[in-house]
Structure formats: structure tokens, C-alpha cells
Write a structure and sequence with these properties.
single chain; 9 helices; 6 strands; elongated
């Protein structure tokens, strides 16, 4: 029988390594808060306001209202749009981090959707108006207009993908995990799941693990319970990686069906 691989285990509270078997199990309901969601949201809003200001600057540069002599206007425009993108993404990361700490409830579908898509919405606001104004500007050079619109569209796509929350957490999901799991959980430096067992088969290749509360795992963007651990502990009612995969597959199938229907309708017309 192969010898069990020894892992380095790090405490999420202290960041220090602990000896195997010496760590203290922590009841989830007694766990301390893992961060200041309000402060993170305030930071996100501040960054997004800067991004909006940079969009206004880009519009003014494109319209010729602002022109610094030390740099070609096209470079100024590209710089404003790139900085706009950077601040949009930074704000979105803070907002998503806040959602991990204090998620929205699924009881109000609109609020839940809005809270988890705020980064994408802000990204759209920070680039789509520029694209529209640039396209409507009849005085602009065609080549300059094409370059400006192209850069803004690329930034919109990149910002949207980076801002979208691919693993949204709900208040109910977090509470279900807290109620279902009585002890600390583990997670590796990579991936999106947490584990209830440090010897889980999916952790065989991991040399280092972090342990902490479910709240800490979710705050670290490990939003689902490992399906192997769930079966091993006979835990139900908690989002697992298998459930998430089924949801994604179903969404992709629905998208493919909608695309096929659209093609067939277009052909029939």
C-alpha cells in the first residue's frame, strides 16, 4: 500500500504552518467574520467612479477637447481606455470579494442577479457610451474612429469576462454549507472547491493545503464543496462541483438549442 503523501497545512487565520493532527477544529457558527464587505464595496465603487472619469476623459480626447502636446492624441486615447479597463476590473474583483463575504439572498431574484452582475453592468457603462458617441461623431477621421471603437470593444469584452462572477454564492448556499459542516475545511492553492478531508482523492497532487472555516473558504473563492467529500460525509443540500457542472452544461445546451432555433427561423424566412 502506497504511503500517504505528507502535505503542508496552513492556517487561514494565521498564515502559519501547523503540525498534522495538532490543529483545533472550529465550529462554523462561532467563526469570526472573514472580512469587511462594506469596505470592499466602497472601494469597488470608488474605483468604478475613477473608471467613469477615465471614460469621460477618453470621450474628450476623441472629440479633440483635450490634447496634451507631450504625447500623440491616439496614445492618449489608448491610455485612457486601458486605464479605464484596469479600474473596472479592479473594482469588480473587490465587489466579488465582498459577495463572497456577505452574499445576497436568492429570495429576491432581481436583487441576487443585480448584485452578482454589478461588475458587468459597470463595465458596460464604462465603454458602451464611448463606442456610441465615437460612432456618431461625423467629424472624426475614419481610421481613428475604427481604431478607437475597436479598442473600446475589445476592452468591453475583456472587462466583461473578468468582471462576471462565474461562481456566484447566495446567502442560502453559504448558510447550508455552514449548517452541514461542523469542522474546518481544506482547500488547495488552485481550484474552486473546498474539502472536508485532507486525504480526499482529488487532493493527491497537492503538496500544500489551507484550512479554515467555510466562510473563509468561500471568501477565498472556493465556493463549492468537493463532490467526493460530500458523498463520503453523506452531505446533501450544499452546492458541489458536480451540481455546478450540471448547471453549466444545461445552460450551454439551452444556448445551443436557442442558436439552432434562430438559424432555422432565419433559413425559413
Amino acid at each position: 500500500m502506497a504511503e500517504k503523501k505528507k502535505k503542508k497545512i496552513i492556517s487561514a487565520d494565521t498564515g502559519l504552518e501547523v503540525e498534522a493532527g495538532s490543529r483545533k477544529q472550529t465550529k462554523m457558527k462561532e467563526a469570526a467574520p472573514v472580512g469587511n464587505a462594506g469596505g470592499l464595496r466602497a472601494g469597488a465603487v470608488a474605483l468604478w467612479l475613477v473608471a467613469l472619469g477615465l471614460e469621460v476623459l477618453a470621450v474628450m480626447i476623441f472629440a479633440g477637447k483635450v490634447n496634451w502636446t507631450f504625447m500623440p492624441s491616439m496614445y492618449q486615447l489608448i491610455g485612457a481606455l486601458v486605464l479605464d479597463l484596469v479600474f473596472v476590473i479592479l473594482g469588480a474583483q473587490l465587489w466579488k470579494k465582498a459577495n463572497r463575504i456577505k452574499p445576497a439572498s436568492e429570495k429576491n431574484k432581481f436583487t441576487f442577479w443585480l448584485w452578482n452582475n454589478m461588475g458587468v453592468i459597470v463595465c458596460a457603462v464604462c465603454f458602451i457610451p464611448f463606442v456610441i458617441l465615437a460612432l456618431l461623431n461625423k467629424d472624426a477621421d475614419k481610421k481613428t474612429k475604427a481604431i478607437a471603437v475597436g479598442i473600446a470593444v475589445i476592452a468591453l469584452i475583456i472587462g466583461g469576462l473578468a468582471s462576471y462572477d462565474w461562481n456566484p454564492v447566495s446567502e442560502e448556499m453559504q448558510q447550508a454549507a455552514i449548517n452541514a459542516i461542523a469542522d474546518d475545511v481544506y482547500w488547495s492553492p488552485f481550484g474552486k472547491v473546498y474539502h472536508t478531508h485532507d486525504d480526499c482523492q482529488s487532493l493527491n497532487q497537492s503538496d500544500e493545503l489551507t484550512y479554515g472555516t467555510v466562510e473563509q473558504a468561500i471568501a477565498a473563492n472556493r465556493t463549492r464543496l468537493c463532490s467526493f467529500c460530500a458523498r463520503r460525509d453523506e452531505i446533501t443540500g450544499v452546492a458541489t462541483d458536480e451540481i455546478a457542472e450540471e448547471i453549466v452544461n444545461e445552460a450551454m445546451e439551452n444556448l445551443a438549442e436557442a442558436a439552432d432555433d434562430a438559424v432555422q427561423e432565419d433559413a425559413a424566412a
